[in-house]
Structure formats: C-alpha cells, structure tokens
Design a protein that fits this description.
The chain is about 65% helix and about 0% strand. It has helices at about 10-15, 35-60, 80-90, 95-115, 120-125, 130-140, 140-165, 170-185, 190-200, 210-230, 235-260, 265-280.
Length: about 290
C-alpha cells in the first residue's frame, strides 16, 4: 500500500516485505527535544564550570607576582624575587658583628647579677635566643670568655697606654697600672671571676687565658722597650711580664675574698715590691759616672 509519502520504507530501500519479520516503521519526523530533567542537568554543569573558571581566575590574580628567569639549559629556575628575599634574610658581616656585641652586652649583664657560674642556656635565654644561635656567634663558653676578655683587655690596655704617655716616671706608671687592674677587679668582680675561673676548665694552662695572655704580651713589649732604651738585656722581658701579671692576679683574688685593706694600700705594697726588683735589673738607667 502506498503511504502518504509514496512507497513504504522497505519498498524505497528495495527490501521486500517479509510477513515473518516485524516491519519497522520509517522515521518520518525529527528527533524530539531532550526531556526537562536532562536540560536542567546540562545547565547546572555549564554554570558550575563557569563558577570554577571565575574562582580560578580570582585565585590567580591574588597570588604575588613571580618573575621566572631561564637558565642556560632553557628551563625555568626559582623566581628571582624569591632568591632576593632569601639573600636579604642573611645578615651582613657588619650587622652580624653588631648583633654579636649586643649578645655580649646581655651576657655581661647576666654574669654581673647571676655570677660567674652561669650556664650557656641561661645566657641564651637572657639574650632571647636559643643556645645554638649563641654558639653560632661564640662557639662555646670559652669563646664567649675570649670575646669578653678581648673587650676588657682592650679597655685596660688603652688606659695604661694613656698613663704611660702622660708621664715619664716609670715608678708612677707601675703604680697606676696596678691601680687600673685592681679598680677593674673591684668594680666588676663577677666578670673578673668569669674570665679567670669559669673558663679555666676549657684550658690546660693559666697563661692561656685570653685576659692573662693579652695583658702579659702588652707588658712584655713595654718592658722590652724600656730595657732596650737603657741598653740592658731584653731577655727577661717576657717571663717578667707573665710573672707580674700572675702576681697581680693572685693578689687580686686574695683581696676580693679578704678585703682586709684598701685598694690604695695594696697598690703601694705591690709597687714597692716590684719596683725594687725592676730598678735593680736594668729598668732604671744607671748613671755612668
């Protein structure tokens, strides 16, 4: 039978009708629109994609700018600004030296109040840092003692050199040098004990103490120059210097514990003893007549 379009679908394709096979109705109309549920899901997916893209864009804009550079192999390296920041965190030698002096000040203040047996962790806590940071500046307790000795010996030597320049009277210079040392011991007894006692466990010999070594070396140069000027043998200069420093150190230790006399009296006694020996051994020029 002819359909409104003419022949049936099987007739148009040249396939004969077979009563044993169900016939398939030809597609005579366009595909129907998608169901409302499918359309709603598609719209939701589209909106979600747009929202995600917008969020990603916002996050990207909120990140700090990074300037990447290219290495010799054509690959990207770490951002240049990041490397600059890391370099800026490393203190300069001048800043590190200033920080070291600040830590030294704090350590000295604590020793003055807590005593010479103060531990390194206590010093670190007083400085507001950890013990490893303190060690990074001084190495260990002996290194801290060396730094203190360097500071105080520099002050003592500068004062003694000034006294030597102000007067040609050698006996007066000896007396004033003794007084300078004892005045330091009297004004800073805890620091003095830290320098001469607390660090001794790290040293085998007394004369290796930084304060003792520095003062003895300076005194040896002074004695050697005086002996040379007077035409005397300069050989005794160094042993005399260490002997004199040892004498004043032990006398100061005794005086700190006993306090049985005034500082001025101890200075006079030590000066009389030392000058007698020095004057008779070439420190004072003899009259050739």
């Amino acid at each position: 039978m002819d359909t409104p379009l003419g022949k049936t679908g099987r007739e148009r394709t040249g396939v004969e009708s077979n009563p044993s096979c169900p016939s398939i109705a030809p597609c005579e109309h366009s595909i129907e629109p998608a169901s409302p549920r499918i359309a709603s899901t598609a719209k939701l997916v589209t909106n979600s994609s747009a929202t995600f893209a917008s969020t990603l864009t916002s996050l990207t804009h909120s990140l700090p700018p990074r300037t990447f550079i290219v290495n010799n192999h054509g690959g990207s390296t770490m951002a240049q600004e990041d490397r600059t920041k890391r370099r800026a965190k490393k203190p300069s030698p001048l800043a590190r030296a200033a920080r070291r002096e600040q830590l030294l000040d704090a350590a000295i203040d604590l020793i003055r109040t807590a005593g010479p047996e103060v531990a390194m962790d206590e010093i670190a806590a007083a400085c507001g840092i950890t013990k490893p940071v303190l060690y990074s500046h001084f190495g260990d307790k002996a290194g801290l003692g060396d730094a203190m000795a360097e500071r105080f010996s520099a002050v003592l030597l500068a004062e003694m050199n000034l006294q030597r320049a102000e007067s040609d009277d050698l006996r007066e210079f000896v007396s004033r040098a003794f007084d300078t040392w004892l005045r330091f011991v009297e004004s800073d007894p805890q620091v003095y004990r830290f320098l001469t006692k607390s660090v001794s466990g790290n040293l085998e010999r007394f004369f290796e103490h930084r304060l003792v070594a520095d003062m003895s070396a300076a005194l040896a140069r002074t004695i050697r120059g005086i002996l040379r000027d007077n035409g005397a043998d300069t050989g005794p200069a160094e042993p005399w210097a260490f002997g004199i420093v040892g004498m004043i150190h032990l006398s100061a230790e005794w005086w700190l514990d006993r306090r049985s006399m005034a500082r001025s009296d101890l200075v006079d006694y030590l000066t009389a003893l030392l000058w007698t020996g020095l004057a008779s051994n070439g420190v004072v020029a003899t009259d050739p007549t």
